[in-house]
Amino acid sequence: MVDVPESLPARMFLLAYDLNKKRMAVSGSRLGYVLRAAALTELYLDGRLIEERRKPKADTPGDDPYGLVAQISSSRPRSWQYWVRKDSRAMVRTVRAELADGGWIRVRRRRVLGVFPSHQVTVRDPRVVKTLWGGASSALRGRPVAHVNSYDAAAVALAAAGELKTVLPRADRRRHKRRIAELTARSGPAAPAVRKVIQANNEAAAAAG
């Protein structure tokens, strides 16, 4: 058995790593959206967040490792999309540091073109990524949806919404569209929110171009 991180955001970070190219396949804001949604999904699955009038609301007290419950509790009601967007780049830094401190990854600072700061991520044990990918693949193709591990179901939902080709190439997203929809329904409102945020960004970029 290979140990994997317990937190859903940490798992999604590792699933965004391309083992063949030995680098992150997704970075910046889009990775941050997926990680924020993963944290929201974790809280939703654990009962610490509920949905009220299509917006997240704090419910059962408990651990709040990324501070999202505190943010939501201290704010007026806002959409899931808002909370997916908020502090997305900071979320990448937080989860990356968490994984580095835990010994899951190595991070080397560098400068692109000698100017722009960047971080080169290397996964220490590729078997961890393969194990996570195996769980997601099993959720997509295996047992009835009701019996799938909740984090594996969420990993598929978030990977599809965030267009993580390391987990779900476009052809697989099309081929398994119905199954993905069923797994997404099990995982709560955050994954659909990611899809809407990314679609809005893509439309804005197309309009600007």
Automatic annotation (TrEMBL):
Organism: Actinomadura vinacea
InterPro entries hit by this protein: GPP34-like (IPR008628), GPP34-like_sf (IPR038261)
Pfam families named among the record's database cross-references: GPP34
Bilayer topology: Peripheral membrane protein
Localization in the cell: Golgi apparatus membrane
Keyword line: Golgi apparatus, Lipid-binding, Membrane
Main location, first listed in the record: Golgi
Protein name: GPP34 family phosphoprotein
